[in-house]
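Quick one from the shared queue. A colleague (R.T.) flagged Molybdate-anion transporter as missing a structural entry in our internal table.

Convert sequence to structure tokens.
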Amino acid sequence: MDFLFLFFVSSLICGGLQFYIHLKKKNITNESENNNNNNSINNKKNNNKNGTLLDIGRSEDVNNKSEIDKSNFFTENEEKQFKKFQNKYLLTYLLAMASDWLQGPYVYALYESYGYSKQEIAILFIFGFLSSLVFGMAVGPIIDKYGRKKMGIIFGIFYGFSCLTKVINSFSILLIGRLLGGIATSLLFSVFESWMIAEHNSRGFKEELLASTFYKSSLLNGLIAILSGLFASEVANRWGYVSPFLWAFSLLVVCSIIIATQWNENYGDSSSSLIETLKTSIQTSYNSPGIISIGIVQSFFEASMYTFVFMWTPTLSESPDLIGVQLPFGLIFATFMVCVMIGSSIFNLLSHIKPELLIQYILLFSSICFVIPFYFKNSLLIYMSFLSFEVLCGCYFPCIGTLRSKYIPESIRATVMNLYRVPLNILVVTILLNIERLSNQRTFLSCAIWLIISLAYYRIFISRSQELIKVNK
């Protein structure tokens, strides 16, 4: 199998999609400007024909201009303000994600170089997921009550100390690092999104623009993952397996400083106690089919995604036609990330489709991607299914982000997001604890079943919502 060829093909597809999106936006902008110019000329002609006074004509021109501006997506000044805000968010978010991507490829290798057995390494990994599971429920209410900016800084501190623990070859110290890393992971996947949505709304930007931010964050995250992987490989070869963690620490310091100096503080429900916030979140979720369905989709899809992260390497290595072949794992990972970028671009092109419908297609096709390695043993077919799943991941993240911004109340957003990371972590830990008993094929079948369950529940939610709309009418 020519992995390099597939990498170039996927890169060309990604580049082609980006070029097409750029041309599409340019054409829309030109059409909008032409329409505005034509409207302005027609207005002036009408004023001259009617013999209006100069002052009245000016007044009408101003009114017409304001009406044209209102009909546009946003004014030039609003566009500048939005892009400034969006870039501020993307800078901090991508710095945080880069610090995470730098560590990923070398966590296992570092533990192994310290002389720990596979069982001991598995304990370290499980401890990290359990930490995220246990503390995730408490982290959400804390974020909403004490502020997203403060917790963003604490994320940088916790993850930074987690990186520093990797320098010391002590099992107990490494366990503490996994504890801090688990808490930081819960913060990473809730603080940034919660802050961005709250700030977006407080500045009065249109709700439709959230999809643009989610698209760019997903697209650029794929690019950052590729660059971080290449950089981590280079520094690890030069200075050892610890060096990627030290570079990650430096990025976290920069990220925390930017958050401290550039972010405004915003809150969820700051008047209630932590327990009351947690109770309110659970009650709101229970009484809202929309929140429950989105939470189930998030839990099952991301659990299958994390399981895939553990399974793709042994699955390809153990394929009958690849046994004994030295696989280019770095190149394969880079291809995966290019596919994520392709998926983000596809989401942008499918912006006319409602996210409530798009998420169903994502779940359906993702389940098919996991059924393929269960039924087939051909390495090319399996690899293509893996690439397809990564494309769907690229569609999933901006889509689920848009849905969360639409259905989860602002006051309890971070709490609800972390609540549904609990079943996610339970599913992943269950798979990890039974990884030796389950074959690769059965593990992927489990992922497919999770996705079918989430799709079925989501379909029930959609049908119930439509019935309620008919009753209300």
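Residues 80-472 form a domain with the Growth Hormone; Chain: A; fold (CATH 1.20.1250.20).
The longest helix spans residues 3-49.
Added to the table.
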